[in-house]
What does this fold into?
Amino acid sequence: MADDKKGATFSLKVMINKERTKVLFADSDSHFADILLSFLSLPLGRIVKVLEKHYGDEAPTIGSLSSLYRSLVNLDSAYFWTDGAKQTLLDPTSSLEDEYRRLKLDIADFQPAEYFSCSNTQYHIPSYRFRSVGIYYDHIKRCKICSFGIFIKEVAKKGSEAAASRDGVFTMNTSSFIISDDLHIFPNETGLLGVISFLGITDMDNAEQIKVDLGFTEIMNLLKASLTSPTPLSDIILNKTTQLVNSKFMVTQPHTTEEENPNNSWNLSLKVMIQQSTGKVAYAQANKQFVEFLFSFLYIPLVGVEHLLAGNTCVKAIDNLYRSTSDLADSKHFITPDTKKRLMTPILPHGYISAHCIFPLAEECLPAEYNDYLNLLSSVKFPNGQGSYLKGSPTYHVADDLTVTPFCFASTLSSLKEQKISISDVKEVEMQIGLKEALSILKASLTSSTALTDALMIRKSLKQPKREV
It folds into this structure.
């Protein structure tokens, strides 16, 4: 991450109550609004990665995503088709990566773009740069035909980045906004009375204005708070610590509309071990298809989760950002007519979606000029044409918090002992995970450290009264 991108600051005029316990709202320019909107297109794995890099041992726990990510880090590369396949999941990119490079502040830590360049015309390969995209899991360093072509890093010029930033990235640089404590974005033309009414503020006489400068550290704190608190602005500006009202899983029906998706009819088999006395998942015994489904969470952007769950993720601030983006007018507030669509529509980089994906997601198409030379440069689709990240047919142990490890009887017994669960109290249940269950697990992973128990509603099903004969 460039040092000049860490030094940028945002100045906000903030209205707080005189007791200094709550932010009422803040006046913002387009640069700060761009940073907030950029949160939506960050892949979940990228969020966990940058927070752990910034906070180190004090990194926040994001539901079960943190433990899922750490288990991926610890899973031996031998379980993947290539080292590149694992790295693609650990370091997921965004289809809006180019826009991120132009933001006033860089929090995503995307690496410079990588291109394949080969100028050996003897093999009819033109002098052309092919951008490396997600499908290139074998990460070849030289052309398969001539061995002359190499991957090179393309580093953007600092001057062009700065100029682009001044022009705006997502929103018009002439626009200004009002930001609520829970990250609802209002255009300034909404008017003071309209905003006050919407926010339910009844006593402006008890309000005072302060000026606040937010730098890299504060924006990282804001990213964290947006996922863990219902009042992120108060948390970072007034040094409050507030948790989501229910950090467990709020049981609501996820979005289960049958969209155009060939995988909607798929089911994944899962063998679940349940503690009968509590209804809690002790662990699940899973195949590689289910584990690959879990790892797919890491490359889905926040906007993709919002789309799949119809704007109801139980993470209030992120839900508000999503709804605000939908409410802002295309032509009046966004830098191009297509910008709002790109922010609202979850499009993954080409090649990320494996053959075992359940979710109705879309990915970018390759440029037409790639097709003629792709077989010379890399695998056409996934390593060895397998259509998956994981290889072989091992069995995995999946904990309630989505920690994934290779299945081992000794380790499983030790895990039950650590949880103080007796073998006699364990019941085995065979479950089919379809789209509805998959969405529930995704939703629970954002806020719950017992994602399997809460998403599959096992406690509820065990407490149902028996029918009288």
In short: Confidence is low (pLDDT under 50) at residues 123-128, 155-164, 246-264, 465-469. The first helix runs from residue 3 to 6. The radius of gyration is 24 Å. The CA atoms of residues 25 and 239 lie 16 Å apart.
